[in-house]
Design goal:
The strands form two sheets. Strands 4-3-6-7 form a four-stranded antiparallel beta sheet. Strands 1-2-5 form a three-stranded mixed beta sheet, with no helix packed on it. It is built from six helices and seven strands. The C terminus is likely disordered. It starts with a helix and ends with a helix. Helix 1 packs antiparallel against helix 6. The relative contact order is 0.17. The protein has two domains: 75 residues, no CATH class; 92 residues, Cupredoxins -  blue copper proteins (Immunoglobulin-like). It has 183 residues and is an alpha+beta fold. It binds copper (II) ion (CU). Copper (II) ion (CU) binds next to loops.
Length: 183
């Protein structure tokens, strides 16, 4: 019984840890914001970020001079803002990431996209990203991921969670360490 309760609490803490680690807010262009001034390299900006589902993308700009259009890949490539999927015009648009893959945005003001005001937000699948960077997983405590696919030799209720934790990174690890001390 105690083990079951422990697992439930651990699961809840893990979920909290996931929410915390996913709550990142990315301001497009960082301090420059969404602009054509200074030739901000949005491709470079995007490449340095680790976008995850649940993150928020913020476009900050002067609404008199710019806007934000979510477009398809083809429209992004050709700077075509004639039929955007969505248009944002507040000057401070927060867009929550809800799915994997590329999210293409451009400024629909004529000439601005051509001047470089376009960004490709690529949200990598978490498990694929974790597999691509095995050195970052807390291997000291977590079992290797492939173990999850094979039947566990002994019934240990905590093991699936520990394996899953690998993808959650440091926060999850910290929570695990904390919870083992706590109990
Ligand atoms: Cu613009």
């Amino acid at each position: 019984m105690e083990l079951v309760e422990r697992c439930i609490v651990f699961l809840m803490m893990t979920m909290v840890a996931v929410q915390v680690s996913n709550a990142a807010v990315h301001k497009v262009g960082d301090s420059s914001g969404w602009t054509i001034i200074g030739s901000v390299d949005y491709k470079k900006w995007s490449a340095t970020k680790n976008f995850q589902i649940g993150d928020t993308i913020v476009f900050e700009y002067n609404a008199q001079f710019h806007n934000v259009m979510r477009v398809t890949h083809a429209m992004y490539k050709s700077c075509n803002g004639s039929s955007p999927l969505t248009t944002f015009t507040t000057g401070k648009d927060s867009i929550k990431i809800t799915n994997y893959g590329h999210h293409f945005f451009l400024c629909g003001v004529p000439g601005h996209c051509q001047a470089g005001q376009k960004v490709d937000i690529n949200v990598l699948n978490v498990s694929a990203a974790a597999a691509a960077t095995p050195t970052k997983s807390p291997s000291a405590l977590a079992s290797p991921v492939p173990v999850a696919n094979t039947p566990a030799p002994s019934p240990n209720n905590a093991s699936p969670l520990i394996v899953a934790k690998g993808a959650f990174g440091f926060v999850g690890l910290a929570m695990t360490v904390f919870s083992s001390f706590y109990f």
